Amino acid sequence: MSSKVSSLAFSLFVFAAIGAYAADRNGDPIQDADVVLRTGLPAFSFVSYTGIGGGAFLADGKTVPQLDFASGIQFTPWLAIGSYYSAAALSRLEHADLGVSVADTEAAYLTTSGAEILLTPWAHLAIHPLARITLGGASLGYLEDLDGEEGYDAAYEDRCFSASVSAGAELNLSRHIRLALRGGWRFVANEESMGIDEAALSGPELSLTLRVLWRTSFE
Fold first, then answer.
1. Which of 83, 90, 166, 175 is most buried per CB count within 10 Å?
2. CB 73 within 8 A of CB 48
3. Whole-number CA gyration radius for the chain
4. End-to-end Cα, the chain, rounded Å
5. Distance between CA atoms of residues 157 and 65, nearest Å
6. What are the tens digits of pLDDT across the range 171-188?
7. Alpha-carbon distances of 92 from 98, 104, 158, 167, rounded to whole Å
8. How many Cα atoms are found within 13 Å in the side-chain-facing hemisphere of 75?
9. pTM surpassing 0.85?
10. H or E element, residue 4
11. What are phi and psi of 15, to 5 degrees?
12. Is residue 116 classed exposed, middle or buried when 0-12, 13-18 and 19+ CB atoms within 10 A define those classes?
């Protein structure tokens, strides 16, 4: 009987010694979990940009002014990816006549939107090259006044594919502000509508854009 008690006591001693050794090697799991929860995430930051500008493109041999907006992330000093939006009037509006008569319908317009890729090699130089590629869509339509009161009540439009390639130069006005001048070619796969021939909205374009860059950090 005593030998059995001795064997049991010895076994408990061995298990206790192994447990103490494992705890000393691996630490207290409850305490380790608390340390993990109290440990903050590593700092994270990225550079964003917003651009606004204007320019013009040729459509059916006529100059059409347009406004440009863009926003995205500057992944590296030479690569930025974002989204863009541009708008242009193709005929007279209710309270504005820009001298554009591309469409034979009043209050006709063209908007384009999609993704843009900006390449700015040697961005550390005060003046450096810039290349831009866009892929997206274009909306060709017109506004209509249904109730005879001031303002438009309805919009009718068709969506089609649009893309562009342009190149130019960018000037670093400061660490956070850049001015870019670029020219290139845009393609708009519009169908014949409102007196505008098929793909007639494709052609050369020129634009001047002011870009603002800033860093956002999370700690």
1. 90
2. yes
3. 32
4. 66
5. 20
6. 999 999 999 999 999 999
7. 7, 9, 19, 31
8. 7
9. no
10. helix 2-26
11. -60, -40
12. buried
